[in-house]
Amino acid sequence: GQNIDQPTEMTATEGAIVQINCTYQTSGFNGLFWYQQHAGEAPTFLSYNVLDGLEEKGRFSSFLSRSKGYSYLLLKELQMKDSASYLCAVASGGYQKVTFGTGTKLQVIP
Amino acid sequence: KAGVTQTPRYLIKTRGQQVTLSCSPISGHRSVSWYQQTPGQGLQFLFEYFSETQRNKGNFPGRFSGRQFSNSRSEMNVSTLELGDSALYLCASSPATGFSARNEQFFGPGTRLTVL
Fold it and tell me: How far apart are CA A94 and CA B103, in angstroms?
């Protein structure tokens, strides 16, 4: 089976940096996604990591360590609009079944 | 390019009834996945279809079924509805171009199902 763990909630201050962690246990790992979901909206793609290391994309970066079953999403220069749920998802198996974590609800405060 | 569309957007049913939800993927996408989202459980994978074949399946009872048509459009059916089936049902399409490809999923707006 698969197990994905993320913190349920986090609070951070506008302009600050926040790191959202994700740990997973899976067989046949292919890659790890991060999605953002604003309340009442559908998830939207943020990043995808298949190899170990840091992938940077503007204010958002994502890190993966396959040996440790660990990933994090780093959000810099936080803005109020970053208040949302952040979903970690693992793709595994020959047909890339995607399993989502329960998500981390991030609240950005002034 | 048009995004993923789902119909209907909202649905109210009573226990015991059945329901069919529809999803039209992004043009050219051959993979369609269905998820159930509830506040307590998050996004739960239902099943994935590719070229009219179910490739992956989650841990849901047989009351939940789906199919995909030759134009990649997909439907999901839930029979004998229960109160616990009330949820947001999301459909996602993916190019599914290869084993190592970044097959990111593009989500539709979802169908909000309420079972009374």
Answer: 12
Considering only the beta carbons, identify the residue of B42, B56, B102 that sits closest to A97: B56
pLDDT at B109 over 90: yes
Residue A37: partners with Cβ closer than 8 Å, 6 or more residues away: A43, A44, A84, A85, A86, A87, A103
Q: Are A101 and A4 in contact (CB under 8 A)?
A: yes
Suggest the residue from A24, A96, A97, A104 to mutate for an interface test with chain B (most B CBs closer than 10 A): A96
d(CA B92, CA B62): 21
Is A31's Cβ below 8 Å from some Cβ in B? yes
B102 with A102: Cβ contact below 8 A: no
- Residues contacting B87, CB < 8 A, separation 6+: B36, B37, B38, B113
Match 């995004």 to its residue by tokens: B3
Q: What residue type is A57 in one-letter code? A: K
- Mean pLDDT estimate for chain B: 91
When CB atoms are compared, the residue of A44, A99, A103 closest to B45 is A99
Confidence of residue B19 (pLDDT cuts 50, 70, 90): very high
A103 touches chain B (CB under 8 A): yes
Query: Does the CB of A7 have a partner CB in chain B at under 8 Å?
Result: no
pLDDT tens figures, A9-63: 999 999 999 999 999 998 888 899 999 999 989 999 999 999 999 999 899 999 9
Chain-centroid distance, C-alpha A60 = 10
Smallest Cα distance from B99 to chain A, Å: 7
